[in-house]
Design brief:
18 strands, 15 helices, alpha/beta, 510 residues
Amino acid sequence: MNKIAILALAGISSLANAQKEKPNIIFIVTDDQHRNEFNFLEEGVVDGKAINYSPNIDRLSSEGVILDNYYITSPICTPSRYTILTGNYASRATNEGFLEDQRKYNQTNVSWNTDITPNTPNIASLMKANGYFTGGVGKNHVIEFNEWIRIPRDADPRDPKIKAQLEKNHEYQIETYKSIGFDFATSIYKGNLPSTYPIELEDHNTDWIVKGALEFFDLAADKEEPFFLYFATTVSHGPDRMGTKYKGDPLVTPAGFLEKELDDMPSRENITERIKARGLDDRAADVLWLDDAVGALLVKLEEMGELKNTVIFYIDDHGVEGGKVTLYQGGALSPSFVWGPEYITSGIRSSQLVSNIDMVPTVVDLCDIDVSDDYPMDGKSILPILKGEDKVIHESLYLEIGATRAVIMDGWKYIAFRTPEEREKKYSAMGKKATHINDQPGGRGSETPAMAKYPHYYEKDQLYNVIEDPDEQTNLYNDKENKKRIEALKKEMKKYLYQLPGGFGEIKVE
């Protein structure tokens, strides 16, 4: 072999080693997980005893960095996922449905309408471009798709024609993932279970999602490059009451019925036995099912020899403590933690303000990835926090959903509720009120808990001391002593608004 060839091979080997030195990244994104499902939160402990049995999640959180002041910028499924996967506010979405609404009302209305398109810069395409093998499994609910045939809810999934269409729809989802940068995708749910699939298929199947992740790991094991996995669960979201979601038909999937039960996780009967043996409430069963899924991933990573070389971001998509689809603490403040003892500090908690816009920038920093000017990000890297530094990342945080915007700064939150005049007139003519999500007259069922919990829900301007009044029951906006504070918060809100598309009442006139 000549000298040039030897040097070339040495260069390839050096590149492969450099790639392998970079950590594997996993995003575990749960769906509507309640605060009392986390043993590291006070809601998960009663009389000094943990009310969940979740050894794998407990291990990761105790060995990682818990982010106690972690906020979701837009607390519902789709925009939350948009932000987690892009590092940008969901109001930057460019899918036609979202832009059409913005043009009509001259104000962005962030709801279930913020889709990632093939032209949207995102973590999958970024990681792929930087030598990572990328995979996605589980709940979609954010990537735009056009090739989809809706199947009637009363359709029989066993009918050959219906079964063929279910499989074809699943293939469409796989291609959609690949169109935005995923090398691999499978075991995908289009969105929420209710109303999306035939009634007979409206059961959760965490085992099926895990199966897809393990298939990805098998492929990753044969590759030189590091990997990125987006693992999005469907629990604890509906349907079915808490503690019973694991009891669905184990053969049910969005692509139709499986031929046999999967065995990559402990049996579902074993879940019941373990819960009863520890004297726990039935509600804890779904948490254990989710924990078993996490455990299956950890076991596989250990078998591959990749666990030490992996960083896991565990993210709840938003809060559900009576504040979902609003910017109140019950929706926006959400438990999250990061694990990776070889790369970050173990066993600490941070009270610094951080947000889901920060996840992609943190991965970029952690993996030493160069990002082009074509991919600006709203978020900031929180790697200093993960490495043990009590550093201020954000002096303030900005939140947005529907017709509301909020700013959090110095323990205070200002919420502004501004419905576009044309929309207000339209709803009023129907005898309905505009709500925070502002996409349906009178609101949706998911908004009802917030309307009942927060007494100042319909007020145009709201100010809360979220440290002394975390349930946001006392609106201090009209207190004269808060005049300067309000001015400062409005000024801060304007700073964000003028960097983002659309107007916002008199606060930002376009």
